[in-house]
Specification:
There is one protein chain. This protein is an alpha/beta fold. The chain has one domain: Phosphatidylinositol (PI) phosphodiesterase (TIM Barrel), CATH 3.20.20.190. The chain is 34% helix and 18% strand. The protein has 9 helices and 9 strands. The protein has an 8-stranded parallel barrel with strand order 1-2-4-5-6-7-8-9, surrounded by 7 helices. The chain binds SN-glycerol-3-phosphate and magnesium ion. The site of magnesium ion (MG) has 3 residues, from strand 2.
């Protein structure tokens, strides 16, 4: 059974620590989040790491495409100083390190497969092979989501037993067929494109709706009032306290 909390830490706690780092996961837990979302892509030598962008420039002191750099090269980069000097020395985590920490902290996780161009299938297959080796059978499995339908198809093939989140900016016309074909457990959509009617339509298919990225308590309350199950937030503590009021 998939039990999703009302607030999921987005890239950890993105507004308080450098996104997709171990420090950000710890911060999300510290803020009271019980689930986190991270973005997973591959290095040039096929190792899954946490990284949102296709390029290294914004979130590390490196430059150029992630897909052109080996894990060894990426591990030498600083992934914290861009955010603040107090995070200097933070590294780009491997997926293994991320999952080890998540298990230690007792968190649930949404693995967003974020492939670099042309690597959708490979990214999903590798990430799930690595995660599948590490993840204990007695813990609720990760929710595996992606904007890439190809990645979700690959995920369905290699880990049919792990739930999939159909991630989409706005609902395309054929969303029902796609959600059916992927046997999606959830539909994760951009909250700015949601309406009470769209949330109702998704829920009528039996799927919980998750909304990204929500950083205002009033908006989270509104969405949950419409029937949204959970929101991804860069500010988990603030959202949790707004929802508790
Ligand atoms: O998975 C929800 C959200 O993370 C999707 O958008 O660009 O922040 O990865 P993005
Ligand atoms: Mg993401």
């Amino acid at each position: 059974m998939l039990t999703i909390p009302p607030v999921i830490g987005h890239r950890g706690a993105k507004d308080f620590a450098p996104e997709n780092t171990l420090a950000s996961l710890r911060e999300a837990r510290y803020q009271g989040a019980t689930w986190v979302e991270v973005d997973v892509k591959l290095t040039s030598d096929g190792r899954p790491i946490l990284m949102h962008d296709d390029g290294l420039d914004r979130t590390t002191d490196g430059t150029g495409p992630v897909a052109d750099r080996s894990l060894d090269e990426i591990r030498r980069l600083d992934a914290g100083r861009w955010f603040s000097a107090s995070f200097a020395g933070e590294r780009v985590p491997t997926l293994e390190e991320c999952l080890d920490l998540v298990l230690t902290l007792g968190l649930g996780i949404n693995l967003e497969i974020k492939p670099c161009p042309g690597r959708a299938r490979e990214t999903a297959e590798t990430a799930l092979a690595v995660a599948g080796r590490l993840w204990p059978a007695d813990r609720p499995p990760p929710l595996v989501s992606s904007f890439s339908v190809e990645a979700l198809e690959a995920a369905m093939h290699v880990r049919p037993d792990w739930p999939r989140g159909y991630l989409t900016g706005g609902l395309p016309r054929n969303w029902r067929e796609t959600a059916e074909r992927l046997d999606a457990a959830t539909v994760n959509i951009d909250h700015r494109k949601e309406t009470p009617a769209s949330v109702r339509a998704i829920r009528e298919t039996g799927r919980p709706v998750l909304a990204f990225t929500v950083n205002e308590g009033a908006r989270a309350r509104e969405l949950i009032g419409w029937g949204v199950t959970g929101v991804f937030s860069d500010r988990p503590a603030e959202l949790l306290s707004a929802l508790a009021r």
